[in-house]
Sequence to fold (360 residues):
Amino acid sequence: MRAVRRQAVALTVAFSGVQLAIIAILGLGAVRATGGAIEVSTLVAFLLYAFTLMGPVSELSQSVTALQSGVAAARRIREVTDIPLEPAASAPVSAPARSGSPGGAVVELRGVTARYAPGTRAALDSVDITVPRRGHTAIVGPSGAGKTTVLSLLLRFLEPEDGRILIDGQPYPELSPAQVRERFAYVEQDTPVVPGTLRENLVFGRPDADEADIRRVLREVRLADRVDALEEGLDTPLDATSFSGGERQRVALARALLCSADVLLLDEATSQVDAITEAAVTDSVRRHADRAAVVTIAHRLSTVIGADRIIVMEDGRVRAQGTHRGLLEDDALYRELVAALRIAGVPEADPGVPEAASAG
Ligand SMILES: Nc1ncnc2c1ncn2[C@@H]1O[C@H](COP(=O)(O)OP(=O)(O)OP(=O)(O)O)[C@@H](O)[C@H]1O
Ligand SMILES: [Mg+2]
Fold:
């Protein structure tokens, strides 16, 4: 805006100057020509000089404004290049050793403390979390408890201030961020779609996926009919407006399921979808958990109850962990969360809370 404003001022001043000069030449010249001091041909010559001046003057003012916007653009580019780079691997980067027993932990947080900016409150405070190689781990807790922060740390969007994170027993600093991230599939809390077609959105985690795989995951998230109804099918360009919030969430889920990564991270991935779709997604998460690790953050009871292990977080700490039944007995906060969740929706089979069967 500043550049446009300067351009307007520069052009106005330059052109007004030239026009005023022409008026002055014409007025003064006419007086002098009448008095016989100069020839009329001299006056005409002067006028032509003034006209030729207009081109260079306007070019000069345009160059000045081009320079202005160039300087502004350069400043923005510098802001981007000044962002600190991600820490590289400290040890010589080798292929991660995918060792460990099949029953062992795939990722582990040991005494991890993390904060978003120096001097602010710690988002996580000495947190220990172990994610087994197979099975479904659910994280629950009030808003702001640090659930998303745990996933950000696993994906290395955030570096811990204290403590260690290990994947297959190998500490994170020994690996490059890319090596860590290729083991995860992630559905964010606010699921973005990227510019491009639906197909590009689905396969960017696994570019070699074939048609059958794509159809399978679309069925799993109950998006197949919606896609068939589209004129261009999978090649429909996706912009943020053409898909609803729930549909975008399902695109993101399908993308994550297609990756077949070692660890699937879902951050409230079904918060905007209907109950039938959610049940379908819960089923496919269940199947996924039989062969890989799944970590979900959910505010819905139906997703949490089926989990093999539930971690209750509060104020950046792990407050309790166990099964649904165990936590109902032992943890007051979990009981409170479940009681509040039950108002929102009751799962059909809930062995831990028989009194819930009547509602819904
Ligand atoms: N990008 C950020 N910059 C600064 N502080 C942040 C940022 N993201 C989260 N926090 C802070 O870290 C704490 C934990 O946030 P986190 O996003 O992990 O909560 P959450 O458990 O995922 O909550 P919700 O259920 O609302 O998603 C909060 O106190 C929050 O204010
Ligand atoms: Mg969150």
